[in-house]
Amino acid sequence: MSRDAAFDEKAREALGILLENFWILRDRQPEEYAMIRDREAALKRFVRDKLGYRLIVHRHFAKLEKIPARPEPWMGMETFEHPRDYAMFCCLLAHMENVAVDEPFLLSALCEELKVLYPGEFPMDWENYEHRKSLVRVVKTAVRLGILTEVDGDTAAFQQNEQAEVLYEVPVAARYFMRTFPKDLTRFSSGEAILQAEAAAEEDSSLRRRHRVYRQLLLSPAVYREEMEEADFLYLLRFRHRLEEDFAEYLGFRLEIYRNTALLSAPEARARLTLFPDSRAICDIALQMGEETRRRLAAGEVRVEADGTIRLTPVEWEQWVAALKESRGAGWSKQYRTALVKQTAAELLALLKEWKMATVDPESGMIRLYPLLGRLAGKYPADFDPAGRDIKKEREERS
């Protein structure tokens, strides 16, 4: 694809908006919708040719159907906490299919319908606090997505009182929430089967490979050689300059490729994007762990596997976190200064797993630290006192 003169800064901003949101509803975000509509042709060319994605610009919404090359743990609903939430959400969608657009219905009617539709081994019991919490999470998510409108009442009240009543309506956007699939969903046995069917719809194998590579880079914190087909990684190496140009030109990202790892980085922070690190204190600790990992490697204290990872037992991981707290904990927030090492180690590991810097073997419990952890490292400035005093600040105050 030749460089598109119409792909200007506004088009890049519009593409970023589409990538960071499930969809853009015209009545909620009119300016963003108008920006996407104005750059529709240029956007469609890029997402079709490089990603194999479908951009839908409807009079009520704009939506980029983001199909991953492979599923990632973070791709679920961030507000959901239990598999029951997902099942209940599907039941809610089924219920709304039978409700006319803008037709009001009550929470009590929804509760009765969910009892019938829910496929779980144990039925819904609205006297059960956890079941009510699940429904509140599901309904609030539907309202946030714009596929359900809360007309009167407060859904949150149902969490404490099963007799609470709320009035809802189904907006027109709800009819376009589900995308079309290659065949009836009941004929698929797993999510992987759906992705395979999507890929099979593309007859050109070279085109499928291009789309897979672009999608993996765009939708993952890092791509490791072990999780790609070897031909895909070779494609990445062979066409790296073209990929570098595309990601820089159309998204403003920088492509980095190492022996076993490839990733995209943003040269500067952008509020709209989900970036690492963010403002959470645990991210600061993660950066320090990256620096500590580099130090241990340089000192020959750990062995690197052929795939570039470091393997630790759970006990060794806690020892690493304890040593980090001992050497750098004076600058941590109070929450982590006073927390047990075990708690901090668990929270830090969860963060690293979320960003593909670590995994845990479900059978052995062994922890694998990935190269991306060492790519991002942070340490205190030279004028920071380990005792907890900021020397530079004290000097400025005295002067």
TrEMBL record:
Designated name of the protein: Uncharacterized protein (TIGR02678 family)
Organism from which the protein derives: Planifilum fimeticola
A Pfam family assignment: DUF2398
Top-level lineage group: Bacteria
InterPro entries registered for this protein in UniProt: CHP02678
